[in-house]
Amino acid sequence: MQQLTIFEVEPINKDGQPFNVKKARVIEKQWMGNDVERFCYVSALIPDHIRSPLEMWEVGYRKKTKEMEQITEQWGEYVFAIWHYQRYALKKSSDQCDWEKATRMLTEARDNGEPIKMRVSLDGIFRFSPELVVEYL
């Protein structure tokens, strides 16, 4: 068994790893009534296969297939997580970060292979688990 000291920290993985809620710094936010939202912030890479519906069309997907639906649904989840981070963590107004800007940010990060910060919702209809987490914020 390996012994760790207080000076040893887990290195940042530049290739990304699947999301692990046990490593995340989970935040709970109380809403009206008894509703509680659980979320965390991460820096993650956008996988190459994540494409918008327009990009899917451009590469030859002309008919709606289950694969196309899954890819574009994942694309929407990533855009939403990026937009959510910009709006709530950075407190940007809708003029400073809208859906279109979030889609451009996703495309740029994916094409350049750079990590991007996002807000990961851990429950509810917006539950999302990024594939390639580089750092838990």
Could you walk me through the main structural features you see in this protein, from its secondary elements to its overall organization?
By secondary structure, the chain is α+β, with helices and mostly antiparallel strands. The protein has one domain (27-136). The protein contains three helices and four strands; from the N terminus they run E-E-H-H-H-E-E. The protein has helices spanning 53-58, 66-89, 99-112, and strands at residues 27-30, 36-45, 116-121, 132-136. Strands 1, 2, 3 and 4 form a four-stranded antiparallel β-sheet that branches. Helix 2 (66-89) packs across helix 3. The chain starts with 26 loop residues before the first strand and ends with a strand. 21% of the residues are buried. Residues 5-11 have low confidence and may be disordered.
Describe the structure in brief.
With 137 residues, the protein is an alpha+beta fold. It has helices at residues 53-58, 66-89, 99-112, and strands at residues 27-30, 36-45, 116-121, 132-136.
